[in-house]
Amino acid sequence: MANRPISKREKIAWDFAKKLHTGQIRKFLGTPYFDAHVQKVNGIVKQYTTDIDILIAALLHDTLEDCYEDADVGYLELKEMFGERVADLVKELTSDNNDLQNGYDNNKTDYLIDKMLNMTDDALIIKLSDRLQNISDAFTASENFRNKYFLETDEIIKNLEANRTLNKIQILILEDIKYKLSNIKSIFYEKKVYKWIDFITEYDLTATINENSLADNIKKVFSDLGNKESMDFGRVRKIIQYLVQSRDSEVSLFGNKELVTTIRKYLNQIPKDKIDSLSKKSGEEIQNIFSHDAIKTLMKYLKDNNLL
Asked: Could you tell me if 302 and 222 are in contact, meaning their C-beta atoms sit under 8 angstroms apart?
């Protein structure tokens, strides 16, 4: 259902904010900033409160930072039009570039953590809604921006939960943010898996790759896959397939001979004729050899023995 103002005051603020943001474009989407972001933040806040001042401040949350050459002049205009409480909330939500540069040496994550730990409860509701909306749009952004924003948000959430008493509304929004982060994190894992599978299948790793570096990364891939609710068994099979093909090598690909030995013992349970022709098998045939249950059993054994 489309978001709409629920009062005359909010409608005035809606039209005012939309006018101030005229000509501004949402990065990566190419659509008007007000429609793509501002009113959506207001819509998120509206799911948790009908406090008109908070809803108005949500509509105006970026105006002092993005729409006025002089933020002090903007503050006075907002105060005159919508009252001191609204103007103060918007001011709380506005980044201070001088403080960021001089007090935090341009470390935006540390700056935001301190800011969000110390802002009022009402301002934090808006700020978290703003963060949730940005995270929701993360898949439209560049990979570099998405990864940076993910890490920044993850650090902010950890600090808020550890160092601030949160009210019920803030906790609910935080849970929504954490759910979005988990979706992004799962894509991180998939990309890591694809990267290392390509690496394994393209090169003779025993001859060209530093063993310890490879060990850390392949172990991480196994661990990441094992921790996912839905394991990508095809990727695990690919790694095992590589180990099968190099099973006669004395080189420990993991920097952990016990781990390699354990995996190869597991592989030795499979008839030799199937192992020898594995590289020629189709994906479906490999799936029949390495069943889901068999891989789960292997993963559990390795974890139980602290090998992953």
From this structure: yes
Q: How far apart are CA 109 and CA 96, in angstroms?
A: 13
* pLDDT tens track for 32-53: 999 999 999 999 999 999 999 9
Name 276's Cβ contacts closer than 8 Å, sequence gap at least 6: none
The correct answer on CATH 3.30.565.10 for the domain covering 8-186 is no
- Amino acid at position 8, single letter: K
pTM (2 decimals)? Answer: 0.65
183-200 residue pLDDT tens: 777 666 555 544 544 444
List the domain boundaries for the chain. Answer: 8-186, 203-304
CA-CA distance, 76 to 63, in Å (whole number)? 12
Reading the block at residue 220, the tokens are 């991480």
Question: Token digits for 221?
Answer: 């891939």
Cβ–Cβ < 8 Å for 110, 118: no
Residue 203 CB neighbours (<10 A): 11
